[in-house]
UniProtKB/TrEMBL annotation, chains A, B:
InterPro entries: Diverse_substr_monoxygenases, Luciferase-like_dom, Luciferase-like_sf, NTA_MOA
Coiled-coil parts of chain: none
UniProt xrefs under Gene3D superfamilies: Luciferase-like domain
The protein's name in its UniProt record: LLM class flavin-dependent oxidoreductase
PANTHER family: ALKANESULFONATE MONOOXYGENASE-RELATED, C2H2 FINGER DOMAIN TRANSCRIPTION FACTOR (EUROFUNG)-RELATED
Keyword Cell membrane: no
Organism per entry: Herbiconiux moechotypicola
Luciferase-like domain residues: 24-388
Family classification: Belongs to the NtaA/SnaA/DszA monooxygenase family.
Keyword field: Flavoprotein, FMN, Monooxygenase, Oxidoreductase
UniProt KW Cell membrane keyword: no
Pfam families per UniProt: Bac_luciferase
Length: 462, 462
């Protein structure tokens, strides 16, 4: 990579708690302001000013209720609950920014592609081309239960339906309206030329959409497509659809084959190797010096909520971890999920005995991803090493405390990365530019507002 | 009514065309800016400054395609197409205002109440209590076709399902989380007290929602509930649910029994007679003098698009009006819809021969509602007369041209109504107040942020 730019997204959610557990209790934390416009407009302004590429909004549609057989610990520890709809906050952030992108997580399992496509087109209109979509198929039984889907589809079937969902949205976004369909010709009395608007005639297994799209094309048409699946079915899905791949791992060496696999699969489908931008989740704790950063980290550790970490961990592990002593080694728990997770954490440090307490200690600040602690230079070194080893294009930076984590990154890490030529020039710097930019241009360069010509979706037709 | 305040909403939609037809072609019209943030933030600021209570956003989920057997004329004349999602634009408008309400139209037919309730709660959080919901059940076959619902439910069944939809949303908004459920107690480590969050255990005909809501209560909890149904089933629905009734008619004498019927039905359910605020649609063409206003109106008439008016009229009439000569009297067309519409227009003027051309002339500026033409004083007289005769609480004011219609109302009509004590004091006037206000307080008075105690929904329990 050597001189490749690094792209930075804030990894946020519309909730008082995301992947770190219990840190809302830190004296400096202001996560309870999550439901105010001021929190989001101020964050968006600051991140854009610093040169971030986007805000990545996670979402879930049910409570995490595998721990102690119910949602009580999730509620008490604010583990991704309460949670609001990320769609609702985008236009306010767009109103105070010009270049920042907004990737929002929406499941293909509970919305109809026709309505969803219109919502995204609307946001892309209002933001002048700055919307992205993190495609998820949903894994929570609690969501399926309350959304009337009864039993969930099995994993691979969810992906099959998602494939068709993406087929429908592509037809709506890219194929239904020609570029010159909207004429707004007051003299001729033609707002839209009907000959340039085409019915979908889509008659699939999951969806029937006979007619044309009801919204006109937006600047990007298709939002920037992100995906995070790591199963082999998920990887195939990414190769078919994703422009951004969101990965998590304890070390860059673990991510390297995953990223290489995604790029190989994309190339096998005729796409350029760099047509997928790879983002790793990371949490940064930084300050003026390594010592100050280390002290901040030690202070944060005091606020980790063990139960909160277990709430987040219990879902993937698939057993109720409240019935185990915190000092039991993960490897001693007999479930496929526990064994899988034991291998996951062994990759971080094979010599450590990964008890549940140690897992909570690790996950409490930064979840399953790395927590990078140090001065701006130390963190920049580490980000560059991760990018080099794993062939990454950027990072989804989670917060430990709000908004302090982002303030620290902007103060200490961003200037260092910019000095090293790893970030785009600041919007208001000499040589920088105040020009508007679409989200896809942020990631793929000026002019790259539309879906790339080698994207597999272009094989579709009406 | 005598000294009752009048409430004003702008009747808008997220499209270049609403109920007037062809007027986007007027030289002053800027409807093609509908997809920009600037249009909406500027409109919201101006309306709030003038003392409007809200913006009422209409919506449809399919194209109007009864005329000439397809959507071509709707597209050409921008008859409610292209159309974006009103949910997307609310937070941006909320960010630049403090008191203006936002009523958005959402159908109960194509969304799940669990997800929809969260979206509204999110907007109510961000706007600090300024969201309303115009409840519709959808009537368009084109929407049902593309949203996978196949054949539509018959009319009364749609209302039955809507009743249950409202039951679920009430439980989510009002009953699932106690007022003191969210503690944010950093010392005790309790963000939410799980004992104060209650599962719905809703097991109905259309929806199963066993668990608790995932979002915390917003300032209003329930958005202000609007409804526009005029059938007897629709009227019963309004009495059960609505806080705002949206009616349209050619003369106030026609509306009087409809409004009285709604109030009677509400009283029969134990509600106060004024627990439903009645809004009539109206389009105002105004200027410094009656003569200037009349000249403006005559100028507007030149831009009416006959086909566009017929696109909008063809749906309710239920026959393809393109096969009829424009000079055929409506009463001569043999369909129930045509006969119903003939009576509707006869109520405006029984002596006029209501040919299709005359209908287009009437509907082209202001749709099925009245177009009130004159100086500020003349218009204020007429609005007062309508309110007096029909027992109205306010008006949903449609535009003829954008944003000129609203600019004219603000300049000529608002000061006159304010002089007469019909509007709340301007936010920045002496005696006025800059204090924030929720949407429900705008309509029902300071302190009335929550659903009234006599609302039938309070009979529901978990």
């Amino acid at each position: 990579m050597t001189d490749r730019l690094l792209h930075l997204n804030a990894f946020e959610n519309f909730s008082p708690g995301n992947i770190s557990s219990g840190l809302w209790r830190h004296p400096s934390d202001r996560s309870s302001e999550y439901k105010t416009l001021r929190y989001w407009t101020s964050l968006a302004r600051d991140l854009e000013h610093a040169g971030f590429d986007g805000i990545f909004m996670a979402d879930i549609l049910g409570m995490l209720d595998s721990y102690r057989g119910g949602p009580d610990d999730a509620l008490r520890t604010a583990s991704q609950v309460p949670i609001d709809d990320p769609v609702a906050v985008v236009s306010a952030m767009a109103a105070v920014t010009e270049r920042l992108g907004f990737a929002i997580t929406v499941s293909t399992s509970y919305e109809h592609p026709f309505l969803f496509a219109r919502t995204m087109t609307s946001l892309d209109h209002l933001s002048e081309g700055r919307v992205g979509w993190n495609i998820v198929t949903s894994f929570l039984d609690s969501a399926a239960r309350n959304l009337g889907a009864g039993e969930q589809l099995v994993h691979d079937q969810r992906y099959d339906r998602a494939d068709e969902f993406l087929e429908v949205t592509h037809k709506l976004w890219e194929l239904s309206w020609d570029d010159d369909a909207v004429r707004v010709d007051k003299q001729a009395g033609v707002y839209v030329d009907p000959a340039k608007v085409h019915p979908l005639r889509h008659d699939g297994r999951w969806y029937q959409v006979p007619d044309a799209f009801i919204a006109e094309p937006s600047p990007q048409r298709t939002p920037v497509l992100f995906q995070a699946g790591s199963s082999s079915r998920g990887q195939r899905f990414a190769a078919e659809h994703a422009e951004g791949l969101f990965v998590h791992g304890t070390r860059p060496e673990v991510l390297a084959p995953i990223v290489a696999g995604a790029r190989d699969a994309a190339v096998a489908l005729g796409r350029a190797r760099d047509s997928i931008k790879a983002f790793a989740v990371a949490t940064i704790v930084t300050g003026e010096t390594d010592e100050i950063a280390e002290a901040k980290y030690r202070d944060l550790l005091d606020y980790i909520d063990y139960d909160g970490a277990m709430v987040q961990f219990a879902g993937p592990v698939g057993v109720d971890l409240s019935t185990y002593d915190p000092d039991v080694p993960l490897a001693d728990i007999e479930s496929n999920g526990a064994q899988f997770s034991a291998r996951f954490f062994a990759s971080a440090d094979p010599d450590r005995v990964w008890t549940l307490r140690e897992v909570a200690h690790y996950m409490g600040v930064g979840g399953m991803g790395p927590t990078i602690v140090g001065s701006g230079a130390t963190v920049a070194d580490e980000l560059e090493r991760w990018a080099e080893v794993a062939d990454l294009d950027g990072f989804n930076l989670a917060y430990a405390v709000r908004p302090g984590t982002y303030e620290d990154i902007v103060r200490h890490v961003v200037p260092e990365l910019r000095r090293r030529g790893r970030l785009r020039p600041a919007p208001d710097a000499a040589g920088g530019s105040r020009t508007r930019s679409t989200f896809r241009e942020n990631l793929f360069g000026a002019g790259a507002t539309r879906l790339a010509a080698d994207h597999p979706h272009w094989r579709l037709s009406l």
